[in-house]
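Translate sequence into structure tokens.
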Amino acid sequence: MSETEGQPLALQTIAKAGQIIAAQIGFDGVATALLNASLDLSGAARGAVVLAAKGDLRLSENGFEPGLPLVSKLKPEGTLTDLPSQVMRAVVETRAPHMRALQSESSATVLCTPVLSGNALRGLLYLEFDSSRREATSAAAAAVTLLASQAALTLDALAEFGSQREEPVWRSRSRSTGSIATFRWNPATRLATGSPEYYEMLGFDPEGGPIDFVSMTSRVHPADYPTAQAVVDDIVRRRAPLRMEFRIILPSGDVRQLLWSGQFDLTNPVSPELVGVVMDVTELRAADDLLRAAQEDADRQLRLAWLGEMAGSIIHEVNQPLGAIISSADAAARWLERERPDVEAAIKSIQRIREIAHRAGRTVADMRALTSKSSTEIVDRSMNSILGEALQMSSAVLGRSDIRTDTAFDPNRPVVSVNPAQLLQVMLNLIHNAVDSMREVRDRQRILSTRTRTDGGLVIVEIADNGVGLPGGDTGRLFNPLYTTKAGGMGLGLSICRRVVHAYGGTIAARPNAEFGATFVVSLPRAE
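Result follows.
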């Protein structure tokens, strides 16, 4: 199935290979299917696939990080130490495909492509070409990049439904998430063609010929159009790989969520075309929303239950000494109200009040310690991962509110020493406050911008919205207990955020944006 020199690979062939990958129900199957399809399509003489069974794929000085659970497949048989670490390290650091000639007596060329899920590196696809038999081409690079994207989608599905993998149900789910279509788009003519599934997915007649750009973009949901247009303009300008997700509205009024992935075929450098696959992920995203809504509800109920338990404990622990203080105060008053006041007895009652008050103070201090930083585990954690997890947990409410997210994470992945659960709650609180601030916006696209960066020894997080903005005056009051700008708000969220951030030696501040909305800035010491 490999292509002849100078001819693009058949889209149907790529689609069929992608469907085989999508139908797998385990990491081992995904790795095997990806390797076999890539070798078959590209004509490479040798190949390897390495997948991280949990978390990101990471490299140490001597190869893959020790202790990291890996799933690997090599053809012909061999070991991971046989692979050139310099090429793999370049892909891990840049998150982009690399093609280069090996510095050896052979005339081999290697191509290494990342298996990316968002910004998470799930694995690597390595191919080695014997130049005397088959050259590495840009068409082959584009094809295997598409297959790597399909593998990442399948790994995401495996991770999400891993706890529910009864085989019949899982195979049905794999088929539904693996239904994909292929397309080819020429930026010069702005015409697109594709498989029959592509026309059906967008609601066009396959017999109508190529789809013009205006007709194609007319299907894009108005709230998603600015982002989609900006992404397309950017990849055309840079000849960069495509990966984006947006909604379309079909002529029937049905709204569908589509995930696009593609690569420029540089076989014709004068007029390169974007070749890719598109997947309908509507049901998958609906399942995501239901799952996250259930998680949010469970989290809310857990917090209410915890507050109820804590309130009951406080009432019990404080009510007893208060009753004793009142009794002792009444006794002291009675001793002093006698015809001949018994000052000594009154003093004893007052001393008892002092002892009870000190004991109550110690009780309150003990309860405070239960909820303070001293009772939590402090670990080193990437600020990018904490903020990324908060965004993922908030994706349902962001989607329902038609909010576009712009992220700019520090590529160096700065690390802080914190309790991740506490800092995650801070990020969630700030994100949800931003959502509330944009709820009444009707005249512009709602945008949530998140950024991580470093400044000297500090790791800085910025969360910005283009909502209604901050009230005039001292923005420091926002973090005071019981101060709120929301109707029905309790004024505790930002106060708790400040307490958590201060506990780790950091600061939190807010500032109004130049035009719309506000920016909240959290600064924390960078881990040693």
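Note: Residues 287-371 form one domain.
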